[in-house]
């Protein structure tokens, strides 16, 4: 079983994205996952790109029954990602709040952590993932590959292409 969360303004969802909204939706998604995935199954939270940051924020804010966390194509921090994408001048970054600090969240995480990243990722290079995976020796790992057979930033859906779940449920089980 699984639980998929589309954040407002991303993927197949409508709405306007904001840091606070996607964190709230991530927390609600994690709670929905905990409530709907049968006990006795291994429970691993998986996040892709922004989803990795939202997952780390949700795990830090809400008690969960997860057994492990896997981050795919993550970035080290929201500030660093905004600078890299040209959304924030580097000189202004130090005074901006760091809403998605994956390095800090990884440091506090008490679960096994796997970070998966493609060397071909042009949006966030492997260097953006490395700090999240090297903080807790023995409890985390970084796996890099050279191929592009996995969803990457450019292949992630950016418009609504199918039915949307009810407002209270941002995703569905599969």
Describe this structure in words.
The protein has 174 residues and is an alpha/beta fold. It contains 5 helices and 4 strands, in the order H-E-H-E-H-H-E-H-E. The chain has helices at 19-36, 50-61, 78-84, 102-108, 126-133; strands spanning 44-48, 68-72, 113-118, 140-145. The chain has a 4-stranded parallel sheet with strand order 1-2-3-4, covered by helices on one side. Helix 1 (19-36) crosses helix 2 and helix 2 crosses helix 4 (102-108). The radius of gyration is 16 Å and the shape is globular. The chain starts with 18 loop residues before the first helix and ends in a 29-residue tail after the last strand. Mean pLDDT is 75; it is low at 154-174.
